[in-house]
Amino acid sequence: MLVIGLAAIAGMEWLMGRVIAKGEDAIEPMVLFLGVVVYAIMANLCYTLGWVIELWGRKMFRAGLLFSCVLTSLPFWFACVYWTAHRGHVR
């Protein structure tokens, strides 16, 4: 999840840097930091309680893993949609 999260944030910053004026932030650095901390705490809580889900079977485990990967990569997908909508408006 760490690698996916870092790649998602790097990709988001790269794409947003193409449509946002120089000197502006896509997301305020402190908000980004706090978001990462809150996400890490919640991910660890879900990981700790994951054994309960695993009792229901492999299918639930795979579904949870896929959900985690998609959720972790959301900043990148948000940036893709934003870039697509604003690519003609580069400042």
Explained architecture:
The structure is a single chain. By secondary structure, the protein is mainly α. The chain has one domain (2-89). Helices cover 79% and strands 0% of the residues. It contains 4 helices and no strands. The chain has helices at residues 2-19, 29-54, 58-72, 74-86.
Number of H- or I-type helical stretches = 4
The major β-sheet equals:
none
Number of domains: 1
End-to-end distance: 34 Å
List segments where confidence is low: pLDDT < 50 over at least 5 consecutive residues: none
> Would you count the extended β strands for me?
0
Which features does this protein show?
91 residues; mainly alpha; 79% helix
How would you summarize what this structure contains?
By secondary structure, the protein is an all-alpha fold. It has helices at about 1-20, 30-55, 60-70, 75-85.
